[in-house]
Write a structure and sequence with these properties.
Elements lengths: L30 E5 L4 H6 L4 E8 L2 E8 L2 E7 L4 H16 E2 L4 E2 L7 E10 L9 E9 L15 H9 L10 E4 L2 H4 L7 E7 L20 H7 L4 E3 L2 H11 L2 E11 L4 E2 L3 H16 L2
Parallel strand pairs: 1-4, 1-7, 7-12, 8-10, 10-11
Antiparallel strand pairs: 2-3, 3-4, 5-6, 7-11, 8-9, 8-12, 12-13
Helix pairs in contact: 2-6
Length: 284
């Protein structure tokens, strides 16, 4: 691969910022909190002592500031791994590509990424309104199959793959895991688990409106394979971090237990606790 990138490969805005995120290299910190909902960005940045950057384009909102002397960014990704494909590639470009000359930098910079979100549980023993940190993750969306050189395997992935019964979905599976270094910051979470990242909210998560889902026991079967919870972004965040040399951790607030039919009665309160809990450990 040539070191010089074509304009059609690395697309920039008129001011030199990366195309979708609308950011320049100096706009982001080394520590970045990723949230899905743009409305959650100010809920995080309100805790900052200072805010120096506020930028947005489409669903991608970014605030960068300081907290207790630590520079931190918070960014919304929107929903799904297809958005994470954009976010991770453009964040990496901001720190590891010379945007003016469109060349790879000689020195690699690693980002620390803290995914903060909500999830549902498939394990009947997991209680709502608690923090769950993702240790292992399986992606059912197939995204990483479009990239060369990605392979990850551990005991969890081998057992899951060997026993996964849905042959039409099996070719799309890929796996990854947390950054152990960042995981140490959240070792006191109520739960550490294995997460499934789904490519949709309805049938992929076992919901049925007018259309029938693949299998009414889908979530139960995933739990039997060791899955504790599910959401829609973490597999791509973890896998891209492995490929690109970054560190990533996902901390989720469990707002629903699908096996017990429970939903949080006050997830706004638990969301606030999640934000405070994550921030306290970032600045330690």
């Amino acid at each position: 691969m040539l070191n010089k990138l074509a304009a059609s490969e690395l697309v920039l805005n008129a001011d030199g910022s990366v195309y979708h995120l609308n950011l320049l290299p100096e706009d982001i910190a080394e520590k970045i909190i990723l949230v899905g909902d743009p409305d959650r960005v100010p809920k995080v940045s309100q805790y900052f002592d200072t805010i120096e950057i506020k930028k947005n384009k489409r669903e991608f909102y970014t605030h960068t500031g300081t907290l207790s002397g630590e520079r931190i960014s918070v960014m919304s990704t929107g929903i799904g791994t297809e958005n994470i494909d954009i976010v991770m590639n453009e964040l990496d470009a901001l720190v590891n590509i010379d945007l003016k000359n469109k060349e790879f930098k000689k020195e690699h910079q690693s980002l620390s990424l803290f995914r903060m979100g909500t999830c549902g549980s498939v394990n009947p023993d997991v209680k709502v309104d608690n923090m769950l940190v993702t240790q292992n993750v399986v992606g059912l969306d197939g995204l990483m199959n479009f990239y060369q050189d990605y392979h990850f395997e551990n005991d969890f992935s081998k057992n899951f793959y060997e026993n996964f019964p849905y042959l039409n979905i099996k070719p799309m599976l890929y796996f990854s895991e947390w950054s152990e270094e960042l995981g140490e910051l959240y070792k006191d979470a109520a739960y550490h688990g294995n997460t499934a990242t789904f490519p949709g909210f309805y049938a992929p998560q076992g919901r049925q409106l007018r259309l029938k889902a693949l299998d009414e026991k889908f979530l139960e079967n995933l739990n039997d394979l060791g899955i504790t919870n599910f959401e829609m972004e973490t597999s791509a965040i973890y896998a891209f971090s492995k490929l690109l040399g970054h560190k990533a951790i996902t901390v989720n607030n469990v707002i629903a237990n699908r096996r017990r039919g429970e939903f949080s009665s006050n997830h706004q309160v638990s969301e606030r606790k999640l934000i405070e809990w994550v921030l306290e450990r970032i600045i330690k």
